[in-house]
Write a structure and sequence with these properties.
Helix content is 31%, strand content 23%. With 595 residues, it is an alpha/beta fold. It has 3 domains: 127 residues, Nuclear Transport Factor 2, Chain: A; 212 residues, 3-Layer(bba) Sandwich (FAD/NAD(P)-binding domain), CATH 3.50.50.60; 190 residues, FAD/NAD(P)-binding domain. The strands form 6 sheets. Strands 1, 2, 3, 4, 5, 6 and 7 form a 7-stranded mixed beta sheet that branches. Strand 5 and strand 6 form a beta hairpin. InterPro entries: Auxin_biosynth/cation_transpt, FAD/NAD-bd_sf. One of its GO terms (molecular function) is monooxygenase activity.
């Protein structure tokens, strides 16, 4: 079984569509008569249900028939699910797998307030009946508040003669100034998360302002190190509503992505104040309104009163910079990876890169390519897979050339609950490692310590659990294996000297530049930086998996009313911005309580 459950069609299962239709009819009938026990009987005893707002107005994973019944008992009387129908555009498929064949099918349904989609995998139970192994239910639109697209698109003009008529550009300019009108939502940060969420909210008719401290949209990527290219493939990285063109490269260079962000903001008519610092704010619990201040690029200060503030500065917000004795005496250069822009002036210099995840490896490779003598400091261990073997192994069948439409791929990908994904990815990680054996052996011989995750589940679970700890190899591993980049393993810097560092193991190294690829602090600390302890202390930590196996706090209630976290890679920004936008819209329309 591969990471994405890409497997051949199983012709040994006759008429999978009929089987899926009968299952859905029985499951739907039980739900419509509020027979939650009967509905739960349509799951395997060890079945999984992941809900993205449809039944719970939250992101929840439920495991096991008994707990599924309990959650249905809480949600079915409130949401009244009905009209479960197989998707005519997606015929049910039978899939062969050594661990057990299954049937998979898309379906649609309604609740009192929303229209939703689902995706189910059915397996034959011991009694011969087909039951749900995994099921996802995901909100697609709120009734009466549908997105302005297709036959609902705006007219764009008001034909006829109208005295004092203003054109589209004039209207956009006035709208973007929010004077005297106030935005309902202020988003801090116009990276992929902020842009995706603003686009979703715009389509839902929620007045939204993006505040970006950089001079240009996309500078959060544009200003990063010179050689940066995305490690994820193009099919995984689209933004909402506007896919990359068909000629777009598989792996996107940072400056190309930055320019696309500018185009995207313009095409989606997003209100963005660039060169603007979010300087602080406070929340009035009685009125449910924020008072926030921003400093604009013209020197003016504006006070705004939104009902929602979204922190979209990303997981790469506040740099994690270790305090190391003697740093003030060091005569060379110390910089965090987020400040590093390139190694063009490093020829002949001795460089130490602290940290062995994606940024650390990329920077070490760039420094080497520019003629520096590079050592990479690995304090513990790192999961490494090659792009050549790892990307097809993890994304194949879902995010690939000729794969499903992105909205279908997103639902398929999200339909595997993260605790279940860990076991599936253990097999994929092992298969990738077999193909990468020569590379991994070379790393070990060079003194580099390799791991495969705490349970052998590799990249994705490391990303979900801690936001790092891995490297997708695009060249640095060969440099390490060949000795072009030296490894210092199993220690850390104890203190600086004027011309170098002394490690905790007592050894010394003369260096001219130290790059700290030491990651970033929890996003909760970004909230503390912008809004102080009064807000941050009411929030929960961001990222990592909760007891159910869902990501903590991001894209869902933060613990503080009217305050949200938006983060994640391009794929997550595209997909999960939908559910955060729905929650904000529902609160705006009084369909969901603020607390």
């Amino acid at each position: 079984m591969t990471a994405t459950l890409d497997a051949p069609v199983d012709t040994a299962i006759p008429q999978p569509g009929d089987i899926a239709r009968r299952w859905l009819a029985g499951f739907g009938a039980a739900l419509e008569r509020s027979d939650v026990r009967g509905a739960a009987q349509h799951f395997l005893v060890d079945g999984w249900w992941r809900d993205l707002l449809s039944f719970t107005w939250d992101l929840h994973t439920t495991h096991g028939r008994a707990d599924i019944e309990s959650r249905l008992a809480d949600s079915v009387p409130v949401h009244e699910p009905r009209h479960l129908v197989l998707s005519p555009a997606h015929p049910a498929e039978a899939v062969a797998d050594p661990e057990g064949d299954w049937i998979q099918a898309f379906f649609t349904f309604e609740t009192t307030l929303a229209r939703s989609r689902g995706f189910v995998r059915l397996r034959r139970d011991d009694d011969g009946e087909w039951r749900a192994w995994t099921l996802i239910s995901a909100m697609e639109e709120i009734k009466g508040h549908e997105e302005k697209k297709g036959h609902r698109r705006v007219q764009g003009t008001n034909h006829g003669a109208h005295r004092g008529k203003i054109n589209w550009l004039d209207r956009r300019t006035v709208k973007g100034e929010f004077e005297p009108e106030q935005p309902a939502v202020v988003i801090v940060g116009a990276g992929q998360g902020g842009l995706a969420l603003a686009a979703r909210l715009g389509q839902l008719g929620v007045d939204t302002l993006l505040v970006e401290r950089n001079d240009r949209i996309g500078d959060s990527w544009r200003k990063r190190y010179h050689s940066l290219v995305l490690h994820d493939p193009v099919w995984y990285d689209h933004l909402p509503y506007l896919n990359f063109p068909d000629h777009w490269p598989v792996f996107t260079p940072k400056d190309k992505l930055a320019n696309w962000f500018e185009f995207y903001a313009d095409a989606m008519e997003l209100n963005v104040w660039t060169g603007t610092e979010f300087t602080g704010g406070s929340y009035d619990d009685a009125t449910g309104e924020w008072t926030v201040t921003v400093a604009r690029d013209d020197g003016s200060t504006r006070t705004l009163h939104p009902r929602h503030v979204v922190l979209a500065t990303g997981m790469s917000g506040v740099p994690n910079i270790p305090r190391i004795a003697g740093a003030d005496t060091f005569e060379g250069t110390i910089e965090h990876s987020s400040w590093f822009v390139g190694g063009r002036e490093m020829q002949g210099k001795k460089a130490l890169v602290v940290g062995c995840c994606n940024s650390g490896h990329d920077i070490a490779q760039e420094l080497n390519e520019q003629g520096a003598d590079v050592t990479i400091l690995q304090r513990s261990s790192t999961y490494v897979m090659s792009s050549k073997h790892g990307i097809p192994g993890l994304f194949g069948g879902v995010y690939e050339e000729g794969g499903p439409a992105v909205q279908d791929a997103d639902l398929i990908f999200a339909s595997l609950p993260y605790p279940l994904l860990a076991g599936i990815h253990a097999g994929a990680t092992e298969a990738i490692a077999e193909k990468d054996a020569e590379m991994l052996d070379g790393l070990r011989k060079a003194g580099f310590k390799v791991d495969f995750g705490e349970d052998g589940s590799g990249l994705f679970m490391k990303y979900l659990r801690r936001g790092g700890g891995y490297y997708i190899d695009v060249g640095a591993s060969e440099l390490i294996a060949s000795g072009e980049v030296t490894v210092k393993q199993g220690t850390e810097i104890d203190h600086f000297t004027p011309d170098g560092v002394v490690f905790a193991d007592g050894t010394e190294m003369p260096v001219d530049v130290v790059v700290l690829a030491t990651g970033y602090k929890n996003m909760r600390e970004s909230a503390r930086k912008f809004l102080g302890d009064a807000v941050a202390d009411r929030c929960q930590d961001v990222w990592g998996l909760d007891d159910e196996g869902e990501l903590r706090t991001v894209w869902r209630r933060s613990g503080h009313p009217g305050f949200w976290f938006m983060a994640g890679n391009l794929h997550q920004s595209r997909h999960y911005s939908k559910y955060l936008a729905f929650q904000i819209k529902a609160q705006e329309e009084g369909l969901q309580p603020i607390r």
